[in-house]
């Protein structure tokens, strides 16, 4: 095991990319296909492992992802 525990939870790579996705909720927003829920996605550039975050700043998301 390495001394530094920071990195992708799957492959330990330390480079990430951040994207945003929008999804529909339930009820009327689903029926009318209104995308009212937004998430930031942090993905490992090496293996593609991704995590979704709601209501976080991009700096906090990367820190959570990398450990």
Description:
InterPro entries: DUF2082_NA-bd_Znr. This is Nucleic acid-binding protein. Pfam families: Zn_ribbon_13 (PF09855). This protein has one domain. The chain has two helices and three strands. It is an alpha+beta fold. It is elongated and about 45 Å long. The protein has a three-stranded antiparallel sheet, covered by helices on one side. 19% of the residues lie in helices and 30% in strands.
Low-confidence stretches: none
Largest sheet features: 3 strands, antiparallel
> Could you give the order of strands across the largest sheet?
1-2-3
Helix percentage range: 10-25%
Strand content: 25-35%
Question: What is the string of SSEs from the N terminus onward?
Answer: EHEEH
> What structural class do helix, strand and pairing data support?
alpha+beta
Pfam families: Zn_ribbon_13 (PF09855)
Protein name: Nucleic acid-binding protein
Organism: Natrinema versiforme JCM 10478
């Amino acid at each position: 095991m390495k001394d530094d525990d920071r990195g992708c939870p799957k492959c330990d790579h330390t480079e990430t990319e951040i994207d945003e996705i929008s999804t529909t909720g339930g009820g009327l927003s689903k029926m009318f296909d209104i995308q009212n829920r937004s998430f930031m996605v942090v993905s490992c550039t090496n293996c593609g492992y991704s995590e979704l975050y709601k209501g976080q700043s991009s700096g906090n998301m990367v820190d959570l992802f990398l450990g």
